[in-house]
Amino acid sequence: MDNSIVISTPPHVKSKRTTKNIMIDVLIALLPAAVMGIVYFRLNAFVIELTAVLAAVATEFVYFFIKNKGFSKQAGEVCKKWWKQFDYTSAVTGLILALILPSTVKWYEVLIGAIFSIALVKMVFGGTGKNLVNPAATGRIFMFLSFSLTAFTACAIKPISADSQLFTGATHLSGWLLETENPAGQMSWLDLFLGTGVAGSIGETCKAALLLGYIYLVVRKVIKWWQPLLFIVVACFLSVCFAAMGSKTFDIKLFLDYMLSGGLLFAAIFMATDYVTSPKGVYGQIVYYVALGVLTALLRYLTKIEVVSFVIMIMNLLVPLIDTYIVRKPFGYKKVKKQKEGK
Amino acid sequence: MKAIKGKPFFAGIHVHDKKSLACRQKTEIMPSPEYVYISLSQSLGKPAVCIVEKGQKVKEGEMIAKADGAISSNVFASLSGVVIDVKQMVGANGNTETYIVIEGDGTEEKSYLPRLKDPSAEEIKDRIRDCGIVGLGGAGFPAAVKVAPRTPVDTLVLNGAECEPYLTCDHRLMLERDEEIARGARYIAKALGVEKIIIGIEANKPDCIARFEKYDDIQPVILKKQYPMGSEKHLIYVTTGRKVGIGKLPADSGVVVQNVATAFAVCEAVELGKPLYDRVLTVSGEGITHPKNLWVRVGTCVKDIVAYCGGEKLQPKKVIQGGPMTGLALSTYEVYTHKTTSGVLLLSEKEAAAEEPTPCLNCGMCADVCPMHLMPMQTAFYSAAGDFDTAAKLGNTLACIECGACEYTCPAKRPLIQAIRKTKSYMHKKVVRVSSPKPVDQKGRSAPTVPLTEDGKIAVKPVEEKLDESVKKSENELENTAVKEKTEAVKEEAKKEEK
Q: Which domains, from first to last, does chain B contain?
């Protein structure tokens, strides 16, 4: 027995799953949506995706490099160290950010957004696992507020007048929320499902691709099957109820319309389920996803714009509170009954 | 009785069990070693008190150390020969233990207790105590305490789950000695005065389940193949549907759990009068040449066991005493088996997890698999910051059974069990500090509190330090006064000269 032996506390065997391969799984699950985005929005989408991913990874690298004093020490060692701890989380953030942007965004806007997401939302809080809010959602909000006049009209309020013929109309959801058009008449469910002829964000249009990603994540046990479903069902059902309040007719068919339009599916599958910013316990998770659904339906009804990223950010901020107060009781726990005083 | 399925329980992990390495190896009796080093700390509680002297001749099965108090167990010579030394050594767990060293003389003279025929409940209880039987599942709780519960019990559950990966010693024992186990279980049931005997066996051992279906008075229950099904609380829940409260004993729920190996030892103690000085243990792992299930005497050196199994096949990354989920990692082969040692595993680099931890992702997988429904990540987070009170409160750490499921499943490879143990030890110390009565002096006034050690004894070191400090202080004062006197004297002289 020589010095190569390792001594540690039990357990001495561990599962093969690591942070790295979870993140690779998420990237694989995002792949269909990314590819379909390129198919529908051509070069624009490709440029945005590439810029976002590269900018995100590069930002993380630069932050790490400066923090570990890469300029004073040997730079090669710091680079090696970075590669050793690189877990693809920044790549995932970059890709998600790209997929929730409209294809009309300029590449330099994406660059700024990606740098903001990684540097200011994630790295300054301590890097992987320490960020308070979802970096991609926050990055999108940042871009929405900063560049809204130029680009975000597409997925926000006004119909865009882009040069491509593909999206000459309003995004389905925004037009519909403003009641300028009758959704059922304009788009068939199949169109919405496949994303053909639908205006919207790069990764959010093709729901079939998202469904593939969802199935992959569930099979690989990265997410629990009920988590996105809970969010979607609550949000859509409440939206139907709100619609019924306005028109006085309860139309359950609208359920599918709500589900298949906007960024709800994408956000529910890939953004709300982000490990870092969602609750840890089972009961906390149920509360979180139901609250997400309720808030989405409510804010969509009240503000008439696509609000999912805002909702996710708001709920992210409540997660520490949920984790502290909504905790499962230990196995075998018995409630201590207060003894009633006999009269 | 026909086997039934246990109650479903949704938590825990599915480990690749690697039992196929050793489960077909029939048990072998390992030849007597030249020396045995028998520790006096063979069970939970106080170590036994040595009753032999250096140079004394002992026979196999002779008592060499007597139990000290209720929670303690007798220790027996596992080899006939001469006691050549009684010395203090550091054991595998890092504690200093007293060892009795016996050199074998080649004869196999035995000294057993008389056999019992149709024993009464009291006789069985006495025999279990006299033979130094402890729980052989791993914790090593003295069996004599378990068979004399304070609250009425109605069920005996035999633990044949063996949910730890790699270990196959209970599996082989159930296959080869099922009749003895059944008889031993009946003796324990008689001592307890219960009728109902249940044996819980994991579904990956269908041969054992079939073996126990032939007894009319024993109910086999099939457990899901899931770690940790052999944990006492979960075994009770799955087999009987009762929940054991936190900080409560199984007997409070009317159940007593014994390992199958313990039942076998009870049978031998009653029928042959043989004290507990040997047991079956599994030698396994990719690193060993011939995985085996061996009858090994208590106090055998791990080095001898490894050598008997053909030595190392490849350089092991980790050597473990016990199971891979809860066992001890060894730094040297120069350690000696105890009554509770259930295995010696040589894990190759591929099997052993020795990866560097990465930042916690807050994924909550540890909470999902925790069989006690705790929040291990909270404990790890707050204990890392030194805030053990919050760690224990949010993570419910004191209810933890340290099964290791959380750390097994953690994708960031965080050292969760280490954090939990740290928090637990802090909280236990705190309990000692709070609960110990304030010292009172002769007149009834409360004396100044003295810092206590873990055992509740008065800490010696701080007092010495205090003494040192006071001595130094007084020395300083003396010096100061001396200097002052000198200066004053000088001044006075100067005054005189002026005059």
A: 4-31+110-279 (3.40.50.11540), 365-434 (no CATH)
